[in-house]
Amino acid sequence: QVQLVESGGGLVQPGGSLRLSCAVSGLIFSLYDMRWYRQAPGEPREYVATVTSDLLTYYADSVEGRFTISRDNAKSTVYLQMDSLKSEDTAVYYCHTVGDNWGQGTQVTVSS
């Protein structure tokens, strides 16, 4: 059974930083692409970033240059470093992998 557990969310002021983590179990982590998505209140879930099995990275235009996705295969964990946060980054952040497996989400709130 594949499990994804996100952590690291919280309340941060505009311009601040947070690092999200997603610990994965139940599959051979290193073989699969990992993605982050987010969902703001009243909005559809939207794509944020990908790190592939061979360490290529891709970003949504809205976060390019501010967010960094990475992975540690030894820890079966994917990270999302979020810098220069804006109020519009407020959302529940989810990690996702093969087989349409999702975590439970972690809340990020950017507010003064």
Describe the structure.
By secondary structure, the chain is mostly beta strands. Helices cover 0% and strands 51% of the residues. The protein is built from no helices and eleven strands. It has strands at residues 3-7, 10-12, 18-25, 34-39, 46-51, 57-59, 67-72, 77-82, 91-97, 101-102, 106-110. The strands form two sheets. Strands 2, 4, 5, 6, 9, 10 and 11 form a seven-stranded mixed sheet that branches. Strand 7 and strand 8 (77-82) form a beta hairpin. The model has no long low-confidence stretch (mean pLDDT 97).
> N- to C-terminal separation?
40 Å
Radius of gyration: 13 Å
Secondary-structure content class: mainly beta
The H/E string reads EEEEEEEEEEE
Q: Compute the number of strand runs.
A: 11
Give the mean pLDDT.
97
Fraction in helix: under 10%
The coarse silhouette is: globular
Give the biggest beta sheet: 7 strands, mixed
Number of helices: 0
Question: Uncertain segments of ≥5 residues (pLDDT<50)?
Answer: none
Query: How much β-strand is present in the residues?
Result: over 45%
Describe how the helices and strands are arranged.
Elements: E1 3-7, E2 10-12, E3 18-25, E4 34-39, E5 46-51, E6 57-59, E7 67-72, E8 77-82, E9 91-97, E10 101-102, E11 106-110
